[in-house]
Amino acid sequence: MTRYGAQYGPDITYLGVDRCDLDEPATYDGADVVVLGAPFDGGTSHRPGTRFGPQAIRATDYLPHDGSRPSLALRTDGLRDLRVVDAGDVEMYSGDIGTALPALEAAVERVARAGAIPVVLGGDHSIAFADAKGVANVLGHGRVSMIHFDAHADTGDIEFGSLWGHGQPMRRLIESGALRGDRFLQIGLRGYWPPPATLDWMAQQRMRSYEMTEIGSRGLEACLTEAFGIATDECDGVFLSVDIDVCDPGHAPGTGTPEPGGLTARQLLDSVRRICLELPVVGVDVVEVSPPYDHADITAALANRVVLEALSAIARRRRDARDGTRWDPALPLLADRPDPTPESSA
Ligand SMILES: [Mn+2]
C-alpha cells in the first residue's frame, strides 16, 4: 500500500538504517522512529523540485552510511540508541494532491499507532497537513501542539483557486480540528506574506507567531522558552515541522521560496536540539528542500543534520529520563562531562 521503494533514484535508507515495510508490522515492531519519504511537490506555488528532497536528505552525508552517528555534543548515537527504521517513500504523485496527502496521512497514522515517532522527509509543506493530522488521529485531536519553523505562516485560505497547497497546511490543520490554533507556535516568520486578512484570521485562532523581528529583539532562547510553555499546556505531545526556508538563503539556498534575513543553520540546529531534549516530540517533518536549486549540497546537508539532531536529542532525553541524568551544554565536552552509559559513546 505505501512502500514502493524509492519513488525517485536509488533505493537507500536514511544514513543506512534498517529498512521496514509498513505492510509488514513485524518489520517495525518496537521501533522508536520510522522515517518516511514524502517525495511530493504538487503543492508548490512557485519553484518546484522538493519531490527530490527525501533522497537528498537521506543521502547527503560524507560519512559512511552505516546506521551509526555518535553525537559529539550529546553523547548519544541517535541511530543506535533508538531503534530507527526507514519505510521508504510513500507513493505520492505530484499531479494528484487529492490522493497523495491521504496516502501519506494513512502511513503516518500507521506509524504513530505502532508507538513510533514518524519522521517525514519532504516534500513541499503541503505534506504537514497529512503528517500532523496522522499523528493527531492517534493521540487525539486537540492533544498535539505544533512548533513550526518557517519564513512563511502557511495559513493561506485559497491559493491559485485551490484549498490545498504548500501555503495553506496550517490553516487546514486548525480548521480540521486536528490541532488547536492556540497551541500553534510559529518561529522565524518574515518577509512580505501573508496579507492582512490572513493575519486577522491567525489572530482569531490565537496562533502565536515569533517573527524574526521579535526573535532579534528578545533573543531566540527567550522566545523558545515561552513557546515551550504554551506547547505543553493541555497537550500531550508536540509536532515539530521544520521548513528549511526558516534559515537564511545563505544557509539554505536550495528551496522554492527563499526569503532573506532568516535563522542561521546553527540557530536552527540548536533550536531543534532544545525542542527534542525538553519536549515530548511525537512527530517531525523536514520540508521544502529542493535539490535542483541547491548549491554544494548546503541545504540537503543541513536538512540531514536537522533530522540527526532531532534523533540524537530524543535519544538523550530518553536516556536522561531513564538514568536520572541531565545534559548540560555549559559543561566542557571532553574533560568533565560525565557519560552515564560509556558503552554507547564509542
Ligand atoms: Mn512552509
- What percentage of the residues does DSSP assign to strands (E)? 5-15%
What Rg do the Cα atoms give?
19 Å
Provide the number of structural domains.
1
Give the low-pLDDT segments: none
| Each distinct ligand | manganese (II) ion
CATH architecture: 3-Layer(aba) Sandwich
The total count of helices amounts to 9
N-to-C order of helices and strands = EEHEHEHEHEHEHHEHEH
Tell how many strands the DSSP assignment holds. 9
Alpha-carbon distance between the two ends: 39 Å
Percentage of residues in helical conformation: 25-40%
Strands in their spatial order, largest beta sheet:
1-3-2-4-9-8-5-6-7
User: What is the SS-derived class?
Assistant: alpha/beta
Largest beta-sheet characterization: 9 strands, parallel
The name of the CATH superfamily reads Ureohydrolase domain
- The CATH topology annotation reads as Arginase, Chain A
Mean pLDDT: 95
Can you characterise this structure?
With 346 residues, the protein is of the alpha/beta class. The protein has one domain (14-323): Arginase, Chain A (3-Layer(aba) Sandwich), CATH 3.40.800.10. It contains nine helices and nine strands. 55% of the residues are buried. The mean pLDDT is 95. Bound molecules: manganese (II) ion. Residues 125, 150, 152, 154, 243, 288 line the site of manganese (II) ion. Mn(2+) binds at residues 125, 150, 152, 154, 243, 245. InterPro entries: Agmatinase-rel, Ureohydrolase, Ureohydrolase_dom_sf, Ureohydrolase_Mn_BS. This is Agmatinase. Keywords: Hydrolase, Manganese, Metal-binding.
